[in-house]
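Homework-ish question, so no full write-ups if that breaks the rules, but can someone show me the predicted structure for this set?
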Amino acid sequence: MGATDDVDTNAEAGPNGQGRAVTPLVTVVVVAHEPGDWFSATLDSLVTQDYPRLNLLVVDASGGDQLAGRVREVTPHASIVNAADTRGFAEAANVVLETEINSPLLLICHDDVALAPDAVRMLVTESLRSNAGIIGPKLVDWENPHRLQHVGLTVDRFGDAVDVVEPGELDQQQYDTVTDVFAIPSACLLIHRKLFEAIGGFDPLMAHRGEDVDLCWRAQLAGARVMVAPDAVVRHRQRIADRVDSLAGIGYRHRLRTMLVNSSRTALVIGLPIMMLLTLGEGIVALFALRLGHLRNLVVGWTWNFTRLGEIRRRRQFTRGSITAAHRDVRALQALGSVRINAFVRNRVGRGDSRLAAGIVSVMRTGTTRFVLLTWAVVALFVLFGSRGLIADGPAEVGDFATLGDSGADLVTNWWGSWHDRDLGSRGTLASGLGLAGFAAMVFGVGVVRTLLVLGPVLVGLVGIWWLLADIGSRRAQMAALGGYVIVPLAWISVASASNSGLVGFAVAPFLLRALLRVQAAAPFGRTKPLPLLGVAVVVALGAMFAPASALLLAIVAAGLMVGSIVAVAAAGLHRLVLGTVVGAVVAALLVLPQTLDVVRGLVDGKDVWAVFTDGRSAPHSGLGVVEIVRFDIGRDTYSPLGWFLAPAVILSLIAGRSWRFDLSVRLWAVALCSWGSLFAASQGWLSFGFPDPALLLAPAAAAVAGLCGLGVATFEHDLRPARFGLRQIVVPVALVGAVVAALPTVYLTHSGRWDLPKAGFADIVPFEDPAVAGSYRVVWIGHPDVLPANGRELAAGMAYVATMDQLPSIVDRDVPSDPGDVALLLDVIGEVITGETQSAGRLLGGLGIRYVVLVERLAPAPFSPDDHAVKTPPAWIAALGQQLDLRRLAGINNAIHVYENTEWTSVRSAAAVGFDDGVESIDDLASSPLSGTAGVLFGRGDRITGPIPPGTDLFVAQTPDEGWSLQVDGVTAVARPAAGWATAYLVGTGSQAELTYAAGVEHRLSIGLQLLGWFVLLSMGIRHLLYRLSGPVMRSASTT
Amino acid sequence: MTILRSSILVIFGACFIIALLIDRDSLTVDLPELAPVVATPVADGRAWFCAGGSGPDGGAVVGLEIVNAGATTIEPEITVIGDGDGEPTTHRVVVEPFGRSAVALADLAERSDWVSAIVEVTASDVLVDQTHTGEHGTDRSSCVTGAASSVILPSGATRKLSHGEEMVLLLFAPYYEDAIADVTFDANVGVDSLEALVVPGRRVVAVDVTNEVTVASRVSTSVEVDSGLIVASRVQIRSGGEPWENLRGLSVMPGVANGAAVSVLPALQRDSDLLSVTNPNPTQRAEVDVEIIAEGIVMYPIELTIRAGRTVVVDLSSDERLSTLSDLSVVVRSLSGSSVAAMVERRVPSGGEDVPGVASMGALDAASTRWLAPVEGSGGSISIVNPSSTTTAGVTVGSAGKVDAHETFDLGPRQRRVIQGSRFGDGSQLDLERPIAVIEATSPVVVGREYAGATSRHLLAGIIAGPITALVDLY
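A: Not a homework solution, just the prediction itself:
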């Protein structure tokens, strides 16, 4: 180590004798590590400085003699320090701390910078004038000095730094003002030696990245200003990645270390959890972007720091000794929020070459922006106002809006398992959407997710209808479509009638319509590939995940578009539409693989899988007339005929549109007609099979009608405004006035704050006993599909049934499984009861574990659902149930339901005397030989039930036999045998603690795994595609060096 | 473009117009077919409800006889229900194929004054009769296979001191649900009523009508249930008194459930029977034709006009037009279509050639092509009526468990035939064999049975054991 010169306080500080002051000695510390040819330019720029008192110290981080030779060639007086034993820039630069340097100022440089001749002078001058502890130059590109590289860094509380300048920004002297910044890049910075010594120099563990931010943060804590003097210009190559291995990821860990070392304790308490969340979010994006390396870096960043907590603690203690400024004062200099997120958004939105960015920029620049925002604000306010009761109190547990259970974890467990408790039990997979809802409930809580499951589809549908016409380039048309979708009462009627299918249809229909239109690629939809095909699949699959019947919309919409294309004599892209429909359906089936396999298995086994889609509805199922259907008047209350006033807006594009407006109008009309027609056909009894919820069938019509409203505006803009005044122009004001009038009934619907959804369900009135008292039991619900608390199976025309376990059904009981299990037994017994063939229904039902029979006539109990909303049970059925010798009618409950308690019930899982079912060969035998002497045990639901069981008994399990079930008693597997002609009995032996478990098959787990993999791949493709179009890698580092 | 646009508008418009034209406002919904609801007992495996009678110390000690006309042994479950606080008890009894088992029901509920029963059978071709024994006679009546919300007992009498007439109304709620009933007594001495009488579920309640409506020569009882279902029965005791000391007997009759627009009384005797017809409608009068069916004779019907809520009694012996008849059947038909309830009461005083005693039965509201009729020895008989006015029924009469038919004949429209019990035995006067007659016909017929023993008379309905046809559907 050599010594440098002392400070000459009498020297002059300017070449021309201007700005005279004491001239401090500056030692230039160049940290070199196997530099390339450019190093000569670096040395040249230093020796040609106009600053008179300059010493040069080259720290050779690579060792060897080669560098010394190159330095001597240029400047023989330079000091050279061998720092081959150091690792990285920071540790090498810290060598000056061990060197006897007397100069008050240090100019620390990388080996790839070239200083303008006056750079040092400018820095020193500004440093002295502003009393800056650290000051840096304006860094510009090495090869193109007109492009800015760095003019200081903005830093947030997490140690994240971002350039003040935009990447590649041209230098137009826009930053040429001396200013305070939080950090200066270490490529070239002037620092007071004493400050550098006081704060301990660079953090030696930060080899390459983040050391500058850490240094400046500590300098600020020590009371020093950090500034940038743009008049000092330095060219910088900044290609460290070409020279140093394993740079990836160290920036993140260094940022975290910077935060851990320099933040106050209070800031850490607040900041660390936020940092964790940000990391989690970043990790999820990285995961779906298949940037696994980045994901690894995030993980390593945390583990690297947490394995060095002791060292971090010591460094905090050291830093504390130099602190003279308050943390809050330093915090005030930092950026608010996360500069990383800000930079991400700014980088992506600010670029005009991306569609999204272009769209947003376009929106912000066009004159309709304020109307767009106003429209969305009005719609949002309308939805929020109309839903105020739902948001405040949550949706009542009626119809499809069943409870999610006690926790999201239960829901996830149910989804992960493969056993349905509903009906008489069956093997199958829960809809994937419910698994998703379970995960969401674990994070946000059950109540929030229940509300989201109701209002979420509405909001999604509104966004979908906005995007439906995004390609036609008219914001006004999009606004009109949005307004039309709000006016059409489908969503609100679906909420009022607690129809999950209707809501999912409302959400899916516009996206599906748009996806298929893009697949067809007829004007104005451009031809793109292959994402539109995947778009169809994704939309269909997402819908099916939450409402399996919504998959049928693909057929309706595709058929409508095909018919429309043919009728409009605009068959272009028809083959693509057909292909897209088929491919979309196939890929969608793969994306819901477990459910698809269930359906396929059911088909192979000859089961009635169509029941999965019909919710127990039969043909004719609604009795709706064409007028009600076209007006979307399918609710319990008659919807106002004012809805007809929307007709002029809907028909405008058909009678006045030209070119693609006309073609698209015809296609949308055809979609609407197909949608209306399908429901009409079902209502008229033309179909021999049941059809799904009317609200679901009408969803494409609603989307088409809304789209036609938008097309009406496009027609006005393109075809009517330029034309001479005529009859067609008169339609425009008529349509406008009509739309306003048609909106009135919808506005009225907001009065209840719940869209007329009943305020309360049956939970508080049903007298079901706690299953913990006497064991688990089943409840049979019989009624019209519109009022049943779960989707049922067809019992008779307009009537359905469903059996659920233990009190009211939960959301896992909602959907009809593809595998009916032994539910035919239940159907037979109910049939015998309602036809008067038996008076011993209790005994028969008791053998099936059924304790209660409930005839449901209204969606909710009185007074929340009035009598005129009732769908009456046939009186003969009530009479037949009343004539059962072993059913006790529980009187005085509520007018909405008739509840019968089975006096001969047997628990679903009961301990029974050995030989309890002797002589019982079939369920019918129970009429003469009822099960007796049983006691309920092992109460609960799911695929793992534990509890005590009396020794020496048989465990009678009244559910569909399945080899996946097994009983362990004190760790010993019990022998199973068929019981009572249909169920299963286990020989308990002498044990006492029992565990009844169901082992899901490998194929089930495999199918879920494949499904998740499919979604993962698809999401990755989508994100990568999006990010690609948004022009930039996702995880671009904000580090500057 | 204009042509295309016009064409499309026409096509779309036509779709709507066609839909409007073919739109059906209302659609019939096909629900599972239910068997006709009739009051006539049906032996198709459903439970039997026996309103019962008194306990061991009462005046109409009740017993059961379970008749198995099937080929397999059965083990029906009998639930014995008393009028006290005790819980119902269940018992099982074995009945051999084609056999009968008697159950001393009163002995199974010793602490009850009145006893009812439910007999649960799972096999068809099983029927249950209830027997009653009292100081003044015996009776036998069929249990019923359905409870009802409206029951009518057109006739009764309560002149206890002067004529020895006592009447008890048994109300039995066989289901778990309580029955709340309004009971109206329309007597020749006035109208009385009991309102909101609670019959607890699975309990029997006895109403002593003798105390409620005193000294009435005719009491018509109507029971309307607001909630729940009941089985009602009338216990009529005639102990003989001035000037009726020759008329003694015990008569227990199940109430006529719901009434019917058309019903048949298959076995009447001109000389001793009273026909009572009640119009239960509280607001409208009923025009009723009583059509006479007798062998070889066609007669004009007896036309009755019955005021709302009232009862008309026809003394067959006083009708000159019937003077040439001895046995007959009647079809009671309400011309207005409203339901009426009819019953016959037979009163045969002692001292004559005929077996004395009293008996009664309600009219049958259903026909069938297959009937069961347990025969009580040579003293009994079976009456078969073809209620159709157009179809001739080919009838085969046999015995359960026997292959050969006893008798085969054609029964023309509105014809009746009586088969004597002796046809089933060896012809001796004291034939102790009690076969179970099986009557099969090619078209629906109605079957009744009667028995005249040494000291008592019985009138009973046959038991349907085949497809059920409501009589109103034949008219």
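Now go work out the reasoning yourself. Hint: The mean pLDDT of chain A is 86.
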